[in-house]
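We modelled the chain as a single entity of 471 amino acids. Its sequence is:
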Amino acid sequence: MTAQPAPRLTRLLEALLDVGTDLDLSGVLQHIVDGAAELTGAGRAALVVADPGGGGRAEFRAPGPDPVPETAVLLRAPVLVGDEEFGELRLARPPGSGPFTAEDEQLLRVLAAQAGVSIGNVRLYETARQRARWIEGAAAVTTALLTEEGTGDALATVAERARLLAGASAGVILHPTAEGGMEIVTASTPDDPDGMIGATIAPGSPVLEQLLGGEPVFLDDSATDPRMTTHVRHRFGPSMMLPLKAGGRLIGTLALPRRRGGRPYTDVERLLATQFASQAALALDLADARRGRERLAVYEDRDRIARDLHDLVVQRLFATGLMLESTQRRPGADDVRDILGRAVDELRSTVREVRSTILALRQPPGEAPTGLRGRVLRETASAAVRLGVTPSTHFRGPLDTRVPDRVADRLITALRQALAEASARPGLSRVEVTVETPAALPEGRDGVRLSVYDHDGDEGRGTTVTWWAPL
């Protein structure tokens, strides 16, 4: 006849099974205290652990009668995770219920030993999950930055993803300033970001020296750390400041602050965030290089189109104009002389417009115009929506080399005002802008002249605004 295991041994095995199969830390800790209370018949069972969020302690208690006073605690057992004392199991019985036995103590120590192993396994499992989340996050950021979806605001993409992964109050990107400090240029936060953009770390800060040297900075409390100098530091507590460095070049800094009083970052979180920052910096660098290649391809296409327009279209139009002019001079051409004259004028106007288009193509897109011609083209293009028509623009003479900046600024102001006045007139069918130098001014001096002509196609009325200035 097979001997049956003792009831207490059965309960111990069940308690060990409960503790060893849960992968949630809170669940494991609750199983420990429940098992300790059931095995020993304690009136009270509690597991006291350090509180990672507030620096105090936290207790997990088994359900039962009201707690017994602390002086009645009669049995304790440490819970060790490796060489670290994670917490302490405390058991108590009400007065008059009898002392704990040696068997109670032995069962409690077995349970505490298994608890330490289970807690260690839960930590490893949670670390693996955290690592997987950070790796997935870094991969998602890299994919976004290297595809069309991430080209809008690459820094905001990095800041938002890092904030979510770290459980931070904000994700912040700082850039080095010309003065030697650092300035917040991007902030992702569910809270009010007021005042964050533009906040700076002053030159000479010890934090700044570490960051510029490519070293991460970890703060226990941003609000009270004397190394912090930004005016928004009082909003935050624990923080990580991680350099974004790729190819030996410091792109910026990723800061991940938590709220004041928030849970400190663990060593694992610091390591994973640092690795994420390195991956994100590389992705930012690659994305920037890709956009640079795309811009170069656009410039090359625009330059090729400009060359084709110049070498083919302009030359053919010019040759056609010469043929028409020679036809005017032939005997018997009196009947068509007016028609030929108008055709020549139209060709000349077309040549000027094509040359203006060539100039616009050679102006890099998205950049501030570099000369007077480019600035005039930018103004006319901007006014097209208001006017309802696209102005035709004509240039005569070496405007970019002969017209000084101070005169060019005044001309652009006059052009802007003339286009605004034209947009207020109904029924516009055509707007022509002409800028020429050298132009003979009323007093006989050379200068620059601006003419803006707008025409009402329905009623045949036109208005010309002329502005000029000596050089």
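As a brief sanity check on the tokenised model: The chain is about 45% helix and 25% strand. The longest strand covers residues 428-440.
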